[in-house]
Amino acid sequence: MSLVGLVLVPWTSPSVERRLTSCAAPAIAGGGGRGGVGRKHVERLLSSLHSIPGDENSPAAVDRLVRKFLLSCSKPAARVALSMYRRITGASWFRWNAKIAASVVPLLDAMGLYAEAEGLMCEADSRLKVRELVVFYCDLIEAYAKRGMREKVFEVRARLLLRGIPAGRGHEKGCGVMLDSGLSVDTICANMILSCYGDGGQLTEMVTWLRQMRDSNVPFSIRTCNSVLNSCPGLSSMLRDHQTRPLTLKKLMEMLEEEGCGNEETSLVQELVSSNVLLQTLDWSPSEGKLDLHGYHLCSAFLAVLLWIEELKARLLDRGAEGKVIPRQISIICGSGKHSNTMGESPVKRLVSVSLFHLGSPLRIDRKNVGRLMAGGTAVRDWLLKMEGS
User: Fold this and answer.
1) CA angle 206, 216, 195 (to 5 degrees)
2) Cα–Cα separations (whole angstroms), residue 253 to 225, 229, 238, 267
3) Pairing label, strands 329-333, 288-292
4) Exposure pattern of 138-165 as b/e (b: 16+ CB <10 Å)?
5) pLDDT tens, position by position, for the chain (390 residues)?
6) Prediction pTM value
7) Residue limits of the Smr domain (predicted)?
8) Rounded to whole angstroms, what are the CA distances from 126 to 64, 85, 87, 133, 300?
9) Are 16 and 9 in contact (CB under 8 A)?
10) Where in the chain is the domain with CATH 3.30.1370.110?
11) What's the helix, strand, coil split of the chain in %, to 5?
């Protein structure tokens, strides 16, 4: 028998309460564990259930009490609860409840009853419609987070993706619970939420979540940028036409506002620009100034190049740059297309090389490494001076 959940029906008559107590009594007697911890815990639950008024609001009150019990009970008490469950599932007044089921699954996992936990989730899959199933999995994410079972949060996320169901709200709530419990929420957790919001086109929520990441000192990553910028339809459309593509950061921001892309896209780009995450792969030394775009998707690579140009101006042209050593060569690593849809054709390299060509850049494809654009440092500085003077 699968452990569907410790779920109880409306308390409409004292006779039902007596039947529950009689069903539970053998379980309590046999499952108290050392010191009777489980026994006392379950007796308190039964006492609370018995005191619920028999009115129309009693089902909700029962659900609240049982959920509270499941969240706080020890392993001995949990074993008693599950034993009691086995005895009451055959009762005519028993009913299935998704929210309590979501509370039971982490309890089963914590006790090592993995097959039972999986059976409960499978039963939810078969019983619930899509909208109800989303709520179930969001509750499940929260329940795992409250128990500090971060790996299980990831497993639920994978299960949702396989079913094609986004759960940004559930992950956000789960991360909030983890933070409240003193557990760290890392970039991977935060990126999962961004990915869910992106799948649903929820740009406003993405802006809010990025700011929460920043305020909580959760560092951005290249994957953060990819998830965010891939979700910006206005920015993506700009990259399709190289004739009208914005070639400076200032022009990009102007076009986002002029073409009605919405405040959300502008805010998302501004958040990433201010974080400077897109230039975290810029290496600078007397021998070479190198920007490595491996792992960047198209929109991220494009924005990184615009930021790279502004960074070069600051390092080579701005006040205080006089007398500084100019790197012998400056390069951008785009990759040769080994991991592209079409072997040997790198969309990132094509985007970067065409954009730099229209800017009159001296960077050219390296004959020894076709995935690399390079030029002498002095030539790049002269090009930047020409851009500033035009």
Assistant:
1) 30
2) 17, 14, 12, 10
3) parallel
4) bbbbbbbbbbebbebbbebbeebeeeeb
5) 333 334 333 333 444 444 444 444 444 444 444 444 455 665 666 666 656 555 544 556 666 666 676 666 666 666 655 565 555 555 665 667 787 778 878 878 887 778 888 888 888 888 888 778 877 887 888 888 777 787 787 777 767 766 666 555 555 655 555 555 555 667 877 887 788 788 778 899 899 889 988 988 889 999 999 999 999 999 999 998 888 899 999 999 999 988 766 789 999 999 999 998 999 999 999 999 999 999 999 999 999 999 999 999 999 987 666 667 899 999 999 987 565 555 557 899 999 999 999 999 999 999 889 999 999 999 999 999 999 887
6) 0.64
7) 291-384
8) 24, 21, 23, 9, 40
9) yes
10) 276-389
11) 65, 5, 30
What are phi and psi for residue 28, nearest 5 degrees? -65, -40
The two three-digit tokens of residue 301, written as one number: 């690579």
| pLDDT at residue 361 in the model | 96
Assigned fold of 276-389: Ribosomal Protein S8; Chain: A, domain 1 (3.30.1370)
Cβ neighbours around 285 below 10 Å, total: 10
205: tokens are: 């929520």
Distances (CA, A) of 334 to 173, 193, 235, 348: 38, 28, 20, 6
- Lay out the sheet containing 364-366: strands in order across: 282-284, 288-292, 329-333, 369-376, 364-366
- For the chain, give the longest Cα–Cα distance: 92
Q: Are 100 and 67 in contact (CB under 8 A)?
A: yes
Q: Quickly list DSSP for 237-284.
A: HHTT-TTT---SHHHHHHHHHHTT-HHHHHHHHHHHHHHTGGGTTEEE
